[in-house]
Amino acid sequence: DRPHEFNGTLRTADLNPGTLGHAGAGEYAGWHLLGNPFPSAIDWTKADWQRHHIVGGPVIWREEYASYSPVLDIIPAMNGFMIQTGGNGSLIIPAGSRGHDATPWHKSEAKPGTPPVIRLTAHDPAGKTAQETLVRFLPDATAQFDTLYDTPYMTGYAPEFYSLAGDIPVSLNSLPETSQEKEIPLAFLSNGSPKASFYIELNHAPHGIPLYLEDRQTGAIHCFGEAGAYHFTADPSDPPNRFVLHAGKDLPTGTAAPGETTGVDPRAWRYDDILYVETTRADSTVEVIDLMGRVILKKQLSGAGTHQLGFRQKPGVYVVRITTPKGIFATRI
Length: 333
Known about the structure:
Blueprint: E1 31-35, E2 41-43, E3 52-62, E4 67-70, E5 74-75, E6 80-90, E7 98-99, E8 117-124, E9 129-137, E10 151-152, E11 160-165, E12 168-175, E13 182-189, E14 196-204, E15 211-215, E16 221-223, E17 230-234, E18 243-247, E19 261-262, E20 267-271, E21 274-279, E22 285-289, E23 295-300, E24 305-310, E25 319-324, E26 327-332
Parallel strand pairs: 9-12
Antiparallel strand pairs: 1-6, 2-5, 2-7, 3-4, 3-6, 8-9, 8-14, 10-12, 11-12, 11-13, 13-18, 14-17, 15-16, 15-18, 16-19, 20-21, 21-24, 22-23, 22-25, 25-26
């Protein structure tokens, strides 16, 4: 990498980017690319930005994820950011927002003393992309869309993953304090091949708040714990409103321990010479049997989740048998 080169006088005064309009239609309407005009980090929560008709907060492009992530506070030096306006918007980037924070913008949590935050990331291993979504707890926030506190969702190249403030997709969802139980709708849209594999991981959560993820498509309930990620498959044609994040609520009777999933039968399918096997048990065995009764593949699975096994066989009908301590599951492919 070549070093940056700076010429001229460094800026020390406020910057007014001018009027920010809302022309056209579509999901990118009203979004504007601005830059940090100072040779230092700036803080979105510090000083008076004089925001007028600005919707929510900034989002920044995260190159390694190929998607946009919401800003909680710090915008680093030499970093552009996107901001949305409802029309005839304006703001001032104040010199008073400057700071000496050298932490990368994609750190796992905001600076100390900020409100509690839940950070979830949906990963697409095949496409090597990911999408973050954040839930923040503020005393003045509501369960509906708050123009001052909620950041609209902006699509990148990763699968779409966002929560809903009312019926508006947001990447930063601000809700009232954590003293009450919350059910937070989460949407997911695959942009991969049919039955593509994905996983959702919990990157950060307030201490002492129970969190579990309900998959309304499969009936699974996943309790986030040390194991963390929830593995699943999705088609581009699946309905988007698939998940519910339960926060501050005791686990229902029969729910798995932290890091485990319950409520889902094993599943198996084939795509592009790959056999996909999804199981919630760590001690499962999969067998593939042809119509002559011959076992042509047998594999001990090395953990819960979605497994990929090479499967190059002649076209035909095969039986996949998955044996777990709780019983035997069989399906045809």
